[in-house]
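dumping these here so i dont lose them again. two proteins, back to back, each one seq then C-alpha cells. dont judge the mess
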Amino acid sequence: MRRFKQVDVFTAAPFRGNPVAVVIDAEGLDDETMQRIACWTNLSETTFLLPSKVADYRLRIFTPLQELPFAGHPTLGSAHAALEAGFVARKKQLRQECLAGVMELTVDGAEIFVRGPEAKISEIDAAHIGRTLGVAAKQFLRVDVGAVWVIAEVASPEALAAAKPDQSALAAASDELNAAGVTLFAASGKSEMHVRSFAPAHAIPEDPVCGTGNLSVAAYLRHTGQLQRFGNRYAARQGMQMGRDGRVSVRVDADGVRIGGPSVTCIDGSLTLK
C-alpha cells in the first residue's frame, strides 16, 4: 500500500483545474511499475515522491507513455501533496530534484510557484504544423523548458476557443519537431490571456491547464520583446473548452520565469499494488 492523492492544480475549487496523480512513499517502485501506474491513472501526468540527497525530495514524472524531465502542473501538485502529507516539512522555500535538475519552489500563501528551467528558443519551419491547428496563428517558435512546445499567437480568445486541431496530423508534425505539441495564446486584456495546449504526440489531445506551456509562452514573450503587452505579472486562463477554468499566475523576473497557483486535493487514500 502506498499513500496516494489526486490533486487539482491551478484552482482552489475541485474539478476545475488540471489533475495530477501523486504516489507518496514511492521508494522501491521500479520504472516498469511507475509507467504501468501512470498508464492506469490515464491522467496527463502521474508523479512519484522519493527521498533526495540534494533537495527536499525527488520527483519522477510520467505520462501514460513515457517519463518527463520536468512538467509544471505535476511539480506544483506534487509539492502540495508532499506538504499536505508531511512528506516534507512545511516551509516557504522548497527544492525539488527531477531529471531536469533541481527546481526552486516558493510557497506564497495558498499558492505555490516554481521557477522553470532556462528556456531554449529556436525558429522552425511552421508550414506543416500550422496547417494542423484549425485556426490561423502567427510567429511560431520552438521553446524548450524541459518539455518542448511550439508556441504561437492567435488573434482573439474567440478564435482560440474555436480551434479544432487535426489530432493525428498534429501528432506527426510535433514528432517531426521533437516537440510535445503546440501551445496557443490570445490576449484577453492588459494583464490577461487565454491559452490552449495540444499534445496528441504524448497521448494528450488537450492539456486542461498546462504549466510548461505557460512557462513557454512567457519565455516566448520575453524573447520576442512583447512582454510589455501583458506586464511581468499576468494571469493566464485555460481549460474552458474542457469544462475547466484554470488560472495560472505568471511572474517574469530577472532570474527567470515562475508559474504558480493554488491546488486542492480531490482524492486522498492509498494505492494497492498487489
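---- next one ----
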Amino acid sequence: MHIITAYIITFIASFCMLVIEIVAGRILAPFVGVSLYTWTSIIGVVLAGISIGAFFGGKLADRYPDTKTLGWLLLLSGIAVLSIAPVTSLVAAYSFKTTLMMRIVYVTSLTFFIPSCIIGMISPVVVKLTLRNVETAGNVVGRIYAVSTLGSIIGTFTAGFFLISVMGTRNIIMTMGGILVITSLASGFLFRSKKLAAATFLFPVFLLWGIYGYAFKAPITSDTVYYKESDYYTIKVKDARSSDGKTALKSLVLDNLVHSYVNTADPLHIEYRDEKVYSDILTWRFGRDAAFHSLTIGAGGYTFPRYMEVFYPNARIDVVEIDPEVTRTSYDHLGLPQTTRIRSYNEDGRWYVMNSRDSYDVVFFDAYNDLSIPYHLTTKEFAQMVRERMNPNGIVMTNIIDNFQQGSFLPSYIRTLRDVFGDKNVHLIAISPVFEKIRISTFVVLATNGTIDINDFAAFMKIRQGDDANSAVVPEQIVNRLIEKNYSVVLTDDFAPVDNLIAPVFELRFGYNKREQS
C-alpha cells in the first residue's frame, strides 16, 4: 500500500472515532444524563474497544495481509457506526436490574464497544500493508501514527466546536458511518469492478432511507413541542400540567432532567417548591416597591426571574445562563417577552462573577439539579467570589436536592458556606416541617454577609401560612446533627467530589430499585 493511502485511511478512521467519542456523551444524555460516571464509562469503553481491536487487528493482519481485509474492516466499521443510534434507543429503553452506575456502563458498552473495536483493528492492518523494509519500519509506523493522532485531534475539535450544534448527534453518526462505508468502497480494496462497488454502495443507501425515520429518530415523545441539541444540552420543551392538574404548563428538559415548569400566560405561577421558598424569603425581606438588585446563576426556563420581574417592578434582575440556546428557547417557547427588563448573560457563572463589577442584594444559585451539578460553582473559592460581589446585608439562596437522613452533599455544602459566611449566617430551609420524615427532598440553603433573624422569618411564615407553610426553618441543632452524623467535606477547587456525594441520591431516585428504597 502506498504511504499516502495509509495516511488517508488512518486519518479518516481516527477522525471518525474521536467524533463518535465526543458525540457519545450527547447521545447518552437523554437516557442517563451527563456526569462524571457517563464520561468515565465512555472513555473507558472506547479505549477498551480500541485496545482490543488493535490486538486482534494485529493478528488479522498477519493472517490475512491483503487490502481486501482492510476494505472489509472499513465497511464493517461503517455499518457498526450506523448501528449506534438505533442500538442506543433499544438498549437505553431496557430496564437493567442493577445499579444506575452499572446501567451506564452496560448501555455505553453495548452501544460503543463494537464500533470502537472494529475501528481499532484498522491501524495494525494499514501498518502491515505499508511496511516494505524493516530498516525503515520505525519511520513508517511513526508517521502513520502521527497522522492518525492528527485525525483524532481534528475530529475532537470539529465535533466539539462545530458539528454538534450544526448537525445534531444522529446526523453526525450517520455521516461518520457513511464516510467509513464510502472509504471502503472508494478505495477499491473490496471490489475491482466499479459497477459492483456502486451497487454495493446503493444497497445501504436505500436501506438507510427506509429505516431513517426509526433508526435515527430523536428521543422525543408525543408531548414534546420543541427539540434542539445545543453545544451544552439536549433541550426539550414539553407540554405539562400543574401538580393539581388544573393548569397547562410547559416544562424545560435539559438532557434527561426537568429544570423548569413555566406558565407562559401567568409569570406569577410557581410550581417548584424551592421557588416558593425563594418567594417567601423575598416577601419577608423586601416590599413590592423595593429596588433590589438580583443575580440568578442558572436560568433554566426563567421561571423565577420572570416572577420577580412582575412582582417587583423596581428590581434589577440579572441572569447568567451558560447556554445561549436555553435563553433563546425561553424567548421562543417559554413566554419570555422580547421587552423583558431581565438582563441575560450567556457565559459560565463563575467567569461572570470573577469579571463582574456589579454588586447584588440577592444571589440565587439555581444551577444544581440532581447529578447535573457544575462542581466549580459549589466550592469555597467560588462562594468567596460571590461574597465579594454582594452588597451589605446581601443574601444568597441555593437550591439543593439531597437525602436529608443520609445525604452527604447537603451537609458538605452547608459546611462550605459556613467557612465563607460564618456558622451563624448560614441557615437551612425545608419544604416540610416534619424533619424526621424527610428523605430525598428539595432544600434551600440561605446565607448572608450581614445578619438575619431567622426566627423572625419562621414567625412570619407561621402567621402568613400557618402549618401549611412552604418554608420550614430547620433548627440549628438539627443542622449541626446532620453535619456530625453524615459524611461531609468542605468543598474546594482542589477537592470537590460532588458527583460522588450526590450519586446515592440519583441512584435512589432513578435506579431500578427506586420504589423499594425510596
